[in-house]
């Protein structure tokens, strides 16, 4: 029987030993994007408040209609077999390891992928997470009646999934799919707690997911906040350190910053202010961490006639159908001033869709800022100076004489940097005699579906301007956006080639990129596609946003990532006391 | 003017016939009484100044849409009285041009609302019966619409009509506000007509063979001008605030055309960095609406024959 003093001493020694060996402490680092500076041991407990500007409609990433869904879902329902890290490499999450040819996970013909789950996985409600859930996820997503439209690449290529035992899922593809590592990265759907595949759009699970992620939704006050508590069944022992995450919905940028400054929130998604202004405003309470984003701002042209009830590529656009007009518009924009003064250096110039990641192409800008060239091209194309400074058709290719060179420029509302960019472009175009009428619509209209009659997909627009980005595996989106077979129409409602562009060389490049697993060869193919897009002036790329996250000074353990979201590594966070 | 003191209500008394003055016209009477209302007078001066400034806007050396992005966010200075905005445009010039839009929209929508309202009210009040019932139910229906949402819906719908789309968004906004503001003048005019149609001068006109139209427009309506005018000023204040609100939400005047509302909308992201961007348009809306309200007050006091003032 040990004396009391002896016992206390032993306890102290034991505690000290355990503290020394406890994992998870961040190594000292000067990288501002990681953990916030000074090292320390993770402290268990605490609540972190995160500010989001809008409310996600769902936490089901397969139904994500806006980027905001992932910002919240990544902490709960959006955790799947793998997750891309800040380097753009996939890391195993629910999978025990990445399937490769070396470990037998990827077959020689590349059509069979064997996933091994970690042993003992459980859903947040305690039910076991097994390969049956992997199979179920595929069954739901590939069912056309489910309505899944986001993160669905590759599901249509899977022929079958075998589940020889509870932790093994053998995925058989009809043809090699280069994005196989990302196949189940957007989350698994629980077979026992979701619902019928046809009813996915109305599952309760979409708002209260039974999840595999570090946190689970316990309260959702629409318009106000979403509360997530620690998932006791999360697979990483000891994590998450935090007890609770609260996502507060605050639409006005000024109000968001005020809340951050008071210390009532620790994470701020996409602050409206520049880093310099933000850091000065926060005065040590928090700081803005910038990371190159995937959001690429570009102007898109409708090459076909709008408003003619024909969504296809049939009749050319009276004004934009002539490539010289599109080139002239490209020449009219002062790109340097846009990046340096209008966007105050917070963005990086970009010239093509492949501006980041392993598929990055450094293509030179084909039609640079040259007002004289722009005017000359327009005159050549049959557009002469009109009485009010706006050009009028006289011998133009597709427009009757007397038509004014007036185009509608559509963007989405409630994003001031976009509005600033639009006003700058309107002014630039006015200087060469093109009238651009600004017309911003709500997100749901610009990005609505074909059946909703979204002008973009139905083909009733002139020019669009918005920011868009790819995930780590771009092939699915590339095919859907630039292939000539992807023009949206009544028999192709999911088509995304809203420019109505048909280019054989582009098609060939897209097919080449999808035909091999060799990243270098794929990248070259994407660069050829980028060159075709630039040459035909289908789109004009302007700049790439940097993602800004406001992070409180006492928050530790985080890493901001181009490929992540505000909560992608929330299991690693802790609060300094 | 002789002071006649004595018992009884102090109604404005007529001048004794013995004096050599010409009888005072209604306009002069109203002006004299209006002048006594100091606040209303000051507001009239302020509004007059604003209108003058708005009219003289083209005299500004700066263009309302001319951008100089390198000079963004300059605070107020001698070169830029109200500073520059996020694209380097002169804020003072934009406020002046925005004032033109706001005042124009205010005026046009008020005229539209008054025209519609007076017509509906006159018909309902004069004829009574099922026409009155029908028109008043229509008025009630319009009154029960949630104004903001209907405004947003209407402005989105009207935007797509080909002929209106050729004009600027300003016309759409004016029409939309006018279509939702006619109910109050309608009720007012109906009430006035119900009272006035029983008066002797109406029966007299009818006896002399005057038709309905003549009675309505030549006899009854001129007697209603006072209250209609007062109501009109209040409508104008409502219209200016509504236009600012719509433009702020993105449904009214579209940028780059400046309007006080849409200047405010762009200013809110920069409120910490450049507060003057939000202060000035807000101040202008405030001053204009206050001035119009006080003028309305003053007019009401001046026109009302029962107020205790000589």
Radius of gyration of chain B: 23 Å
Please work out how many helical segments of chain A DSSP would assign: 14
User: What separation lies between the terminal Cα atoms of chain B?
Assistant: 10 Å
Largest inter-chain interface?
Answer: A-B, 28 and 21 residues
The backbone outline of chain B, from C-alpha atoms, is globular
Helix content of chain A: 10-25%
Mean pLDDT of chain B: 85
Please identify the structural class of chain B as seen in this structure. mainly alpha
Low-pLDDT stretches of chain B = none
First-to-last CA distance of chain A: 38 Å
Outline the biggest β-sheet of chain B. none
Mean pLDDT of chain A, to the nearest integer, reads 89
Order of helical and strand elements of chain B: HHHHHHHHHHHH
- Work out the strand percent of chain A: 15-25%
Give the overall shape of chain A, derived from the CA principal axes.
globular
- Kindly name the structural category of chain A: alpha+beta
- What is the number of helices of chain B? 12
Unreliable spans of chain A are 1-32
Number of β-strand runs of chain A: 20
Q: What Rg of chain A do the Cα atoms give?
A: 26 Å
Show the helix and strand layout.
The complex is a heterodimer of chains A (577) and B (310).
Chain A: H1 4-21, E1 47-52, H2 68-73, E2 82-84, E3 90-92, E4 112-116, H3 131-141, E5 158-165, E6 168-173, E7 215-221, E8 225-230, E9 244-249, H4 253-262, E10 267-269, H5 275-282, E11 286-301, H6 323-332, H7 335-342, E12 347-349, H8 371-380, E13 383-384, E14 392-393, E15 406-412, H9 416-430, E16 435-441, H10 443-446, H11 455-458, E17 463-468, H12 475-482, H13 504-514, H14 519-535, E18 539-552, E19 555-556, E20 574-575
Parallel strand pairs in A: 1-9, 1-10, 15-16, 15-17
Antiparallel strand pairs in A: 2-3, 4-6, 5-6, 7-8, 8-9, 10-18, 11-17, 11-18, 12-18, 13-14, 19-20
Chain B: H1 26-35, H2 38-55, H3 91-127, H4 129-143, H5 147-158, H6 162-166, H7 169-179, H8 183-196, H9 200-207, H10 212-249, H11 260-267, H12 276-303
């Amino acid at each position: 029987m040990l004396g009391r003093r002896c016992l206390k001493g032993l306890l102290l020694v034991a505690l000290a030993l355990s503290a020394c060996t406890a994992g998870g402490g961040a190594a000292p680092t000067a990288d501002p994007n990681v953990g916030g500076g000074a090292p320390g041991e993770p402290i268990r407990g605490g609540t972190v408040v995160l500010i989001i500007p809008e409310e996600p409609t769902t936490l089901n990433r397969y139904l994500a209609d806006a980027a905001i869904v992932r910002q919240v879902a990544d902490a709960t329902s959006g955790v799947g077999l793998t997750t891309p890290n800040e380097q753009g490499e996939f890391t195993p999450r629910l999978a025990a390891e990445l399937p490769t040819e070396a470990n037998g996970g990827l077959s020689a013909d590349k059509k069979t992928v064997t996933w091994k789950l970690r042993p003992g996985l459980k859903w947040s409600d305690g039910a076991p997470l097994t390969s049956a859930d992997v199979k179920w996820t595929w069954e739901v997503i590939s069912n056309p009646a489910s309505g899944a439209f986001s993160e669905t690449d590759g599901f249509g290529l899977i022929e079958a999934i075998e589940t020889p035992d509870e932790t093994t899922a053998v995925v058989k593809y009809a043809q090699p799919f280069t994005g196989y590592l990302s196949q189940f990265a957007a989350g698994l759907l629980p077979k026992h707690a979701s619902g019928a595949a046809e009813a996915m759009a109305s599952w309760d699970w979409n708002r209260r997911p039974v999840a595999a992620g570090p946190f689970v939704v316990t309260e959702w006050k629409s318009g106000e906040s979403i509360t997530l508590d620690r998932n006791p069944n999360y697979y990483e022992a000891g994590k998450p350190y935090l007890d609770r995450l609260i996502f507060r919905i605050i639409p006005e940028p000024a109000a968001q910053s005020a809340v951050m400054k008071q210390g009532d929130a620790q994470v701020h998604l996409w602050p409206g202010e520049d880093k310099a202004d933000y850091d000065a405003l926060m005065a040590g309470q928090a700081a803005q961490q910038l990371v190159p984003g995937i959001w690429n701002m570009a102007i898109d042209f409708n090459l076909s006639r709008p408003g003619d009830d024909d969504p296809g590529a049939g009749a050319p656009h009276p004004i934009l159908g002539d490539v010289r007009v599109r080139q002239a518009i490209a020449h009219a924009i002062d790109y340097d001033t846009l990046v340096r003064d209008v966007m105050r250096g917070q963005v990086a110039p970009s010239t093509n869709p492949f501006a980041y990641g392993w598929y990055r192409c450094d293509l030179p800008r084909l039609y640079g800022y040259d007002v004289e060239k722009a005017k000359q091209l327009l005159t050549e194309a049959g557009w002469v100076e009109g009485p009010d400074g706006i050009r009028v058709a006289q011998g133009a290719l597709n427009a009757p004489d007397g038509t004014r060179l007036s185009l509608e420029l559509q963007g989405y509302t409630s994003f001031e940097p976009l509005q600033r960019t639009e006003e700058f472009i309107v002014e630039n175009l006015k200087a060469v005699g093109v009238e651009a009428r600004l017309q911003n619509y709500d997100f749901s209209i610009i990005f609505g579906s074909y059946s909703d009659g979204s002008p973009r997909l139905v083909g009733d627009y002139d020019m669009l301007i918005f920011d868009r980005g790819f995930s780590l595996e771009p092939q699915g989106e590339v095919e859907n956006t630039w292939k000539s077979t992807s023009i949206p129409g009544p028999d192709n409602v999911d088509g995304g080639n809203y420019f109505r562009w048909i280019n054989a060389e582009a098609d060939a490049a897209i097919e080449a990129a999808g035909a091999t697993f060799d990243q270098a060869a794929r990248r070259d193919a994407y660069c050829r596609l980028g060159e075709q897009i630039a040459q035909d002036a289908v789109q004009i790329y302007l700049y790439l946003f940097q993602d800004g996250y406001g992070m409180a000074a006492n928050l530790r353990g985080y890493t901001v990532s181009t490929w992540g979201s505000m909560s992608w590594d929330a299991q690693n966070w802790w609060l300094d006391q | 003017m002789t002071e006649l003191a004595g018992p009884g209500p102090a109604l404005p008394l007529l001048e004794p016939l013995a004096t050599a003055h010409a009888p005072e016209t209604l306009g002069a009477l109203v002006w004299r009484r209006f002048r006594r209302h100091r606040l209303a007078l000051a507001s009239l001066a302020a509004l007059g100044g604003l209108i003058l400034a708005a009219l003289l806007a083209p005299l500004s050396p700066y263009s309302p849409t001319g951008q100089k992005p390198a000079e963004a966010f300059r605070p107020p200075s001698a070169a830029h009285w109200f500073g520059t905005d996020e694209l380097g445009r002169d804020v003072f010039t934009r406020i002046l041009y925005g004032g033109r839009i706001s005042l124009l929209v205010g005026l046009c929508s008020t005229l539209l609302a008054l025209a519609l309202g007076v017509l509906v009210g006159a018909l309902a009040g004069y004829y009574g019966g099922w026409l009155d019932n029908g028109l008043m139910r229509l008025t009630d229906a319009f009154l029960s619409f949630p104004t903001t949402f209907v405004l947003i819906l209407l402005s989105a719908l009207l935007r797509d009509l080909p002929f209106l789309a050729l004009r600027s968004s300003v016309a759409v906004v004016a029409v939309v506000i006018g279509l939702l503001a006619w109910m109050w003048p309608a009720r007012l005019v109906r009430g006035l007509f119900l009272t006035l149609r029983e008066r002797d001068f109406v029966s007299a006109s009818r006896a002399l063979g005057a038709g309905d139209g003549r009675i309505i427009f030549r006899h009854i309506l001129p007697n209603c001008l006072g209250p209609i005018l007062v109501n009109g000023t209040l409508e104008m204040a409502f219209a200016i605030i509504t236009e600012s609100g719509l433009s702020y939400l993105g449904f009214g005047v579209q940028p780059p055309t400046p309007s006080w509302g849409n200047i405010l909308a762009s200013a809110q992201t920069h409120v910490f960095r450049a507060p003057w961007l939000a202060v000035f348009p807000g101040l202008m809306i405030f001053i204009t609406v206050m001035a119009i309200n006080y003028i309305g007050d003053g007019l009401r006091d001046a026109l009302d024959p029962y107020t205790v003032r000589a």
